[in-house]
Amino acid sequence: MSTPHSLVSLPTAASRPALTSSARFLFSISCSSKRKKKASAKPKVITPAKPTRRDIPEDDFSLGIGGGASTLTALQPLTDEQDTLIEQKQKLELQLSQQKVTQKPSFNPSAQPTTDPLSWFTLAAYEPQIVMPEEEADPDADVDSTYDAPLVSDAASYELEDDEGENDTVEEKDDAASDAEFEWVEVNALSSDLREDSDDEDVDEEVEVLSADDSDIDEYDEAYLEADAALAHFEKEAKRKSVSVKRISLNGSLLSEDDTEDVSDNDEDEVAFISRKSGNRRHNMLDEYDEEDEKKQPKRGIPAVMRSFDKAKVYVKAGNGGNGVVAFRREKYVPFGGPSGGSGGRGGHVYVRSDPSLNSLLCFRKSVHFRAGRGSHGMGKSQDGAAGTDCIIDVPLGTVIREAGDGISGPGEVLLELTRPGQCELLLSGGRGGRGNTAFKTGRNKTPQLAENGEEGAEMWLELELKLVADVGIIGVPNAGKSTLLSVISAAQPAIGAYPFTTLLPNLGVVPIGFESTMVVADLPGLLEGAHLGIGLGHEFLRHTERCRVLVHMIDGMSQQPEQEYEAVRLELQLFNPLLSEKPYIVAFNKMDIPEAAERWPNFRDYLRQKGIEPICISAVTKAGVTDVVNKAYSLLQSLPSSSYEDDADKEGSGEFGIAEKIRRQRSAPIEEFEIIEDKASKTWQVQGAGLQRFTQMTNWEYFEALTRFQHVLTASGVNKALKERGVAEGDTVIVGQMEFVWHDTEDIMAADWKRGFRGSRDPAESELDFVEHGELDVISSVEPGTRIGGINSSTEGHNQMELES
Ligand SMILES: Nc1nc2c(ncn2[C@@H]2O[C@H](COP(=O)(O)OP(=O)(O)OP(=O)(O)O)[C@@H](O)[C@H]2O)c(=O)[nH]1
Ligand SMILES: [Mg+2]
C-alpha cells in the first residue's frame, strides 16, 4: 500500500482504456458546449491550471481526471489479450519505478501528446465506489455485485496521452461494446453558476465516476480511509486553485452538512441524474436505497429533466434604440438647407405568448437568452431608422412569469400569468430611438449640431413556472393506477408500471364527453406522506393541482390500509396549500377486479361514508366504474363557477399592474429626482437617479452641443445647485450615470483649445449659448458599470481613463 500514487490528468475519451489499465478512480468532467464543439466552451470561467504531476505530491492517490468524455457507454470487457497486456504493463511499470525512471509508459504508444490542456472546471469530488465486475455477463443477474467501497490501487497510474482523433475511435469502440464487465455510474449535474455566466449556452457539467477493480474486499477499510484522505487532499488542492469542490456521493446525496448548505443554496447544483448501468440494463438508482442510507442522506436532487419540466430561468433583453444623427441638407441651389439628421428607430419589444401546443418548459433548457433586435440608426435626408425586430417567446399555457432576483417588482412577484390560449403580453418594451439633429432645431439654434444615442433596452432574468391547466387532476399514492385510469379514459398513453413512481412528469389527456364537450385530465406523479417536505417526488408536482378545478383521488385497493393512505394524501394537500384541500374531489377506489381489494372495499366505503363522502369503486384495468368517475367529475366541473384564476391573471397581465407599464414608469423617472453620495476621502461625488442615468446614457458625447445641453440639464434639474450646497470644490470628481467629470468653479475651462476634442464646437465668442452659471463640469472619462471609485460603488462598470483635457 505504500506505492506512490499520482493524480494524473487524462485527455478526453482516452479515460476509458486508462481505467481498464491503470487509474483506479476516474473523474471525468466535461462540458456540453465542448461536446457540441462550440467556440463558446466554458474554459474562460475556469480558473485552475491543468493539474500536472508537478503540482501533485508524490504520495497522492491514483485518480484520473479526464475532460471531455461525454456520455459514457458500457466499458468494453477485457479480453484475455488485454489482460496480459495489462499485466505486462504493470511489470514494466514496476521495473521503471525501481529504476526511478520518471517517464511513465504511455498506453497508446502511437498517440501524440495532447496539446489542448484539460479544460476542467468546477471540480466535483465524488465519493469513490467500488463496482465489482460481474462474474459472467449474465443478463438476468441483479446489480447487487456492487460494493459501496472505494478501492486503493497498488498499481501506479499511467499518464495517458491521446489526441482528439484517437479519442473518437476509442469512443466508437466503446459505444459498440454492450456487454460490460464493469458497471459504471454516471452522475450528471447542472451547474447553474456556469449556466448563468455563459453567454449563450447552458453548460452541462457531467461528472462520471468510474471504478473498476477486482481487488481484495478485505482491504475495504484501509482502502476507504486512504481514498478518503486522497479526496480530502484533492479538495485542498482544488481549493488552493480556487476551484469549488463539492463532495457528492454516488447516490446523489451530499456527504457533509456544510456541503449540503452550499448546494441547497443553489439547488441547480444538485445532482441531476443518476443511473447505473450493467451490461445492457439501466436501473434507476432511486429505487435502490436502503433505509439507513435514506436517513443519512435525506436530501436528494431531482433529475434535471423533471426539474426543467415546469421551471426555467431565462434572460430577456429588449432592443436598444437606434442612434440619431447629425446631418445637414446640401443641395444645389438650396443654400442653408438646414438640419436633416433622422432619428433612430426604437428597439424591438419582448413579448410572451402562450402556445397551447407546448406542454412543458423543457425547451428552455437549451435556449436561455432572448434578445429583441436593436433599432436602426437614423440617416441623412431626415430618414428615421427602422424599429428593431420584436422577440416573441412562446411558452406553454399556464406559465407564470416572475422576475428573478431583486428587480423592479421585487423577488418572487408575479409579472405575468398566461392562462388563455394565444394570449400575448408585452413584457419589455424596446429602448426609444435617439433623436437626430432635426429634432433639436429651435428658433435660436437653427443648425443644431447634436444628436442623441438610442436608449438602452431593459434586460432581466425571468423565472418561468408552469402550472398545468387541466380541468381534472388525478392524485393518489404511487402505484394506485392513476396513469392506468388516464389511459383508459383518454387517448393519452402514459407509462404504466407495477412499481412506484412510474410517472415522473405529469401527463395530460383529453377526455371526450358526449359529442361536444371535452375535459382535460392530468395524471400527476404519486404522492407520499411527507411530500410537502420533499419526500418522494416531493411537492414538485403538487403545484400542478393548483390549476386543476376538480381532483380525482385514487385509492390503491391493494394497499393494506387504504384509509390511512387516503388521510395521508389529504393531509399532504392541505399542508402544501390549504386551498387545495378545499377543491371539490371524487374518491375512486381502484383495482376492484382483485379479490383482496374487493374485500377491503366495504370497510373503506363505510369509513368514508362516515365523513359524508361517497366513494366510487372502479377497476381501471377492466374499465368497470370508470365512466362513473368521468361523469361525476364532469358534473362537478359544470357546477363550478368559471375558474377564478383566469380573472386574477387578467388583472395582472395588463393595465396598471402590467410589467411593461412598471418598467415604462421606472424608465421615465424625472431627472429632478436624484441623490448625491459623497466620498470625502477620494473627493468623489456620485449623482444617482434613474432619469439622469438615462439622460447621460442617451447623450452623444461626440458633440460639443450635447455637452452644453448636458450642462443646462444639470443646472435645470438642480444638480449643480445641490452639489454647490453640499460643498463641492474645484477639482473634485463628479460621477453622473456612466460618466465621470471634474468640477470647476469657473467657466474658463470652456476655452477654445479644450473644445477642439469635440465635433461641432465653435469659438466661445460665436457660441449662441452662454454659460452664465458658475460651476461647470468637465468631462474626463466615462465609467463602466460596477466600478468602485473611492469607496463609492458607481452604478457603472470598468474604468475608462479617457482624459479629454488637453
Ligand atoms: N388488477 C389491477 N391492476 C391495476 C389496476 N389499475 C392499475 N393497475 C396496475 O397497477 C400498477 C400501477 O399502475 P399505474 O397506472 O402505473 O399507477 P400510478 O398510480 O400511475 O403509479 P405512479 O405513476 O407510480 O404514481 C400497474 O401494474 C397497473 O397494471 C386495476 O384496476 N386492476
Ligand atoms: Mg403513473
UniProtKB/TrEMBL annotation:
GO terms for biological process: ribosome biogenesis. One of its GO terms (molecular function) is GTP binding. Residues 470-638 form the OBG-type G domain. One of its GO terms (cellular component) is mitochondrion. Residues 33-67, 132-215, 785-806 are annotated as: Disordered. Pfam families: DUF1967, GTP1_OBG, MMR_HSR1. Residues 666-745 form the OCT domain. Residues 133-145, 159-184, 196-215 have a biased composition (Acidic residues). Its cofactor is Mg(2+). Keywords: Chloroplast, GTP-binding, Magnesium, Metal-binding, Nucleotide-binding, Plastid. Residues 306-469 form the Obg domain. PROSITE patterns: G_OBG (PS51710), GTP1_OBG (PS00905), OBG (PS51883), OCT (PS51881). HAMAP family: GTPase_Obg. PANTHER family: DEVELOPMENTALLY REGULATED GTP-BINDING PROTEIN-RELATED, GTP-BINDING PROTEIN OBGC, CHLOROPLASTIC. Belongs to the TRAFAC class OBG-HflX-like GTPase superfamily. OBG GTPase family. This is Uncharacterized protein.
